[in-house]
Write a structure and sequence with these properties.
By secondary structure, the protein is of the alpha/beta class. The chain contains 12 helices and 13 strands. It has helices at residues 16-27, 57-63, 81-99, 131-148, 177-181, 201-213, 232-243, 254-261, 265-272, 286-292, 299-316, 323-327, and strands spanning 9-12, 32-36, 48-51, 69-72, 102-107, 154-158, 161-163, 186-188, 195-196, 198-200, 221-223, 230-231, 249-251. Helix 1 (16-27) links the parallel strand 1 (9-12) and strand 2 (32-36). Helix 7 packs across helix 11. Residues 320-328 have low confidence and may be disordered.
Length: 328
């Protein structure tokens, strides 16, 4: 079998972004392999799957055999992020170095640290002040150092807080969409009246695919486009329009959150990043849009699709039926 008969776009991670990226690349007619510990249940036709534990660099390299592009879409448990995420990235980086593949890495915005409401651009210094932020900045520096040493070609795509039909564990996840469908208020930490950029998972997937298929993206950092930026309260108004009733906000006071954090590691981990919701949080994506000529999904459409996805998932899971089913 020749090299070109093997899948050449290899995706590490079958989470919310990995699945969307798999579908997007497969839809472009590209040969795709997904690498994850467990076989995903919803692989598109023709997509290859390789089981591997990405904490093992040797296993990661073997799973990436014949790759021309490797996508790093892995993540680590939020409460163990700082300990477990860097070794995962090192394994995928080793696989890219061994195979000679372009490494496309998905990143969040933690590395910048607080920007006091100024829009984030790709040339901002990585000046993080939190444990997770410094971890992210160090991971970025490792990729850039490998690039500068000529060991690998990279393209980094950064996105803000995720939302989408399959995204539950996010600021704009089940605590907003599932609550809204059930007639409950949205849980929110921070100030909902500040502008905040949210990234739509299908847009993130499309952006990463561009980074992996357009040579102009190589060896550079890009902010991936998404819906227009508005305040979180305006987002909730759009959600309310889709579910048929206003969506209120149950803001959790910072002191109460900190107190809960003493006994709940996940909440403690969230508190650390709360600065993102105490000031405007604005992602400038003009560099990507000017280069590639593409923009993100309109916010109204993205919200409607997300609500439809949540509604559909609730209908498929009788145990999770809620007031939404009775209101429709």
């Amino acid at each position: 079998m020749s090299v070109h008969e093997h899948p050449q776009h290899v995706i590490f991670g079958a989470g919310q972004v990995g699945r969307a990226l798999t579908a997007h690349l497969a839809g472009l007619g590209l040969p795709v392999r997904v690498v994850s510990r467990r076989r995903p249940t919803d692989l598109p036709d023709g997509v290859d799957w390789q089981g591997a534990d990405a904490t093992d660099p040797g296993a990661a390299t073997a799973a990436a055999k014949h790759a021309t592009v490797i996508y790093q879409c892995l993540n680590a448990p939020y409460t163990k992020w700082a300990e477990q995420f860097p070794p995962l990235q090192r394994s995928v980086l080793a696989a890219a170095e061994q195979t000679g593949a372009l490494l496309v890495s998905l990143e969040n915005l933690y590395g910048y640290g607080p920007t006091h409401g100024e829009p984030m651009t790709e040339d901002l210094p990585l000046a993080a002040t939190t444990v997770k932020g410094r971890t992210r900045a160090a991971m970025t520096e490792e990729l850039l150092a490998a690039r500068d040493a000529g060991q690998v070609h990279i393209a980094i795509g950064r996105a803000s807080d995720f939302f989408g039909a399959g995204v539950t564990e996010s600021t704009l996840g089940a605590r907003v969409f599932a609550n809204a469908l059930a007639g409950r208020r949205a849980d929110f930490i921070g100030n909902p009246d500040l502008a905040h950029t949210y990234s739509y998972v299908p847009d993130i997937a499309a952006g990463l695919a561009t980074l992996g298929t357009d040579t102009r993206a190589i060896d550079t950092v890009w902010h991936l486009p998404g819906p227009e930026t508005v305040t979180t309260r305006q987002v909730l108004d759009l959600v309310g329009g889709e579910v048929g009733h206003p969506v209120g906000v149950r803001s959790v006071p910072k002191l109460a959150v900190r107190a809960l954090g003493l006994v709940n590691p996940t909440i403690r981990a969230l508190v650390e990043m709360a600065y993102e919701f105490d000031e405007p949080f604005l992602l400038d994506t003009s560099k990507y849009q000017n280069m590639f000529g593409s923009t993100g999904t309109g916010l109204s459409k993205a919200i409607a699709e997300t609500v439809d996805g949540y509604r559909s998932n609730a209908a498929k899971s009788p145990s999770r039926l809620n007031a939404a089913g009775r209101k429709e």
